[in-house]
Specification:
The protein is mainly beta. The protein has two domains: about 190 residues, no CATH class; about 60 residues. Helix content is about 10%, strand content about 35%. It has four helices and 17 strands. The longest helix is centred in the first third of the chain and has 10 residues. The protein starts with a strand and ends in a 38-residue tail after the last helix. This is Tle cognate immunity protein 4 C-terminal domain-containing protein. It comes from Thalassolituus hydrocarboniclasticus.
Length: about 325
């Protein structure tokens, strides 16, 4: 039991975190055509197209689908009067309200890159070198369940873009909108050696024809629980870290932490709202309650042979950050 000033209010908190890796495993996994064909055939016959992924809803003959590019979701009524409702997905504006946060997802060579959602997973062949990336979460991109334990089920999308980006998107069927989203993984680094004229150990992967830029990595973990004393609405803390390649000649190999921040979101009405809270207070709250990096989501890999292990990219000793090993 502790006292904290959160969002300018003095709050007595019996601290509770009610969601993590174990709870995420309760989400219903979606499926694709190779796993279960019949529903795709019904939709194709009636509508002339097939979604990329489907997941069962809570009612009979109701399925939710995701487009192949990750930029839309739909609700399919698979009955005699086949019908469909659809919604476009665009980057959740709440996430980029802070200029400091927006800067963590910006590329020097192309500032507007990856500001929208996109789905293009790395090669899904387990024999491929590019298979075991981003914890393989994007290999089942569509899921359904009560993500934040507020009594209402949501669609949860894991929108991976090759091996560089992983967005976690929570879409509310009740309100027909995105309630929360976080760009959990955003990496732009290659160890290709450009020679003595390039002074960093890792370079940017993007737009090499525009020049050589320093390699960067941005990761974010989320913690869902009761943080502001209001038991009627869940809260989400987002802990972000941005890394930049170390120079050549450094004693250490890899990256260095250049910036991190903490944000508190509270469910207010139909979506989560960013709260005005001092980062130092959120950081203290987390330390006092032993909310370490590995306890945030995502942490556990779903890749074959890595199930139950930490996602390597987000807990890499080459980040030279003691936090990510806790």
């Amino acid at each position: 039991m502790k006292y904290y000033f959160i969002n300018r209010y003095f709050v007595f908190i019996m601290f509770t975190v009610f969601w993590g890796e174990a709870y995420a495993s309760d989400l219903v996994l979606g499926f694709n055509r190779s796993e279960r064909l019949s529903e795709f055939q019904i939709i194709k016959k009636s509508l002339g197209y097939r979604p990329y992924s489907l997941v069962e809803g809570e009612h009979d003959n109701i399925f939710w689908g995701m487009s192949g590019d990750g930029k839309g979701v739909a609700k399919y009524h698979l009955n005699d009067s086949m019908s469909v409702e659809g919604w476009a997905l665009s980057r959740w504006p709440q996430e980029l309200k802070s200029k400091n946060v927006a800067s963590m997802y910006r590329l020097a060579s192309e500032p507007e890159f990856a500001r929208d959602y996109a789905y293009k997973p790395a090669n899904s062949n387990p024999l491929s070198v590019g298979y075991s990336v981003l914890g393989c979460l994007a290999h089942h991109p569509l899921r359904y369940g009560d993500f934040d334990d507020n009594g209402t089920s949501e669609l949860v999308l894991f929108l991976g873009y090759e091996s560089e980006v992983l967005d976690i998107v929570m879409f509310s069927p009740e309100y027909e909108k995105i309630q929360f989203s976080v760009r959990s993984i955003f990496t732009d680094a290659t160890d290709f050696d450009y020679g003595d004229s390039f002074k960093y150990q890792f370079a940017s992967n993007f737009n090499m024809n525009k020049g050589w830029y320093v390699g960067t990595k941005t990761y974010a973990k989320i913690f869902v629980g009761e943080f502001d004393g209001n038991k009627d609405s869940p809260d989400i803390i987002v802990w972000r870290k941005r890394y930049q390649s170390l120079p050549k000649g450094s004693v250490e190999k890899g990256f260095q932490l250049v910036y991190q921040n903490y944000q508190l979101y509270t469910l207010a009405g139909d979506e989560y709202q960013l709260q005005v809270s001092l980062e130092a207070q959120i950081e203290r709250l987390m330390k006092d309650n032993n909310l370490t990096w590995s306890k945030g989501f995502p942490s556990i890999s779903e890749c074959p042979g890595e199930e139950g292990k930490l996602i390597p990219e987000m807990h890499d000793p080459l980040l030279n950050d003691p936090d990510v090993l806790k």
